[in-house]
């Protein structure tokens, strides 16, 4: 979502309709709205054993196109802190979190204001607190908001 949001407000491919970044009075803003952590589910079903996941945005996590890369798309450009052959929900989230932070940093460096909003996340649950921290880190300055109906 964040990547496509950035693409639509830019004047670059694939959406060239965006105003130039240096146009006076032109603010480029992307709002990230989420109700949870970055997830990509591991599969325990034996029929998916070689694929390690169902097919989704990053393809199968167990399939590598050796002509193009040595790791699957989900693990490309992640640090050594993310094992490239550990096929668990937690490791998938770690890879996605790293990629999100890189994308956030790149968008902000390009002059995009990133606003983040979390819904249904509470800071009393460790995984949700971590997701909220990632959203805060992604946001430009103080552009993070939490669900106001949540009293915690």
Protein model, in words:
Helix 2 links the parallel strand 1 (29-34) and strand 2. This protein has a 3-stranded parallel sheet. The protein is built from 3 helices and 3 strands. The longest helix has 21 residues, at 89-109. The protein has 152 residues and is of the alpha/beta class. The chain is 28% helix and 10% strand. It has helices at residues 2-9, 89-109, 126-138; strands at 29-34, 113-118, 144-146. It is globular, with a radius of gyration of 17 Å. The protein has one domain (2-146).
Q: In angstroms, what is the radius of gyration?
A: 17 Å
The chain-level mean pLDDT equals: 83
Helix/strand class: alpha/beta
Spatial ordering of strands, largest sheet = 1-2-3
- N-to-C span: 27 Å
* Oligomeric description of these chains: single chain
The structural domain count equals: 1
Query: What string gives the helices and strands in order?
Result: HEHEHE
General form:
globular
- Care to count the β-strands? 3
Q: What can be said about the biggest beta sheet? A: 3 strands, parallel
Roughly what percent helix?
25-40%
If helices are DSSP runs of H or I spanning 4 or more residues, what is the number of helices? 3
User: What ranges have pLDDT less than 50 throughout 5 or more consecutive residues?
Assistant: none
Question: Strand portion, in percent?
Answer: 5-15%
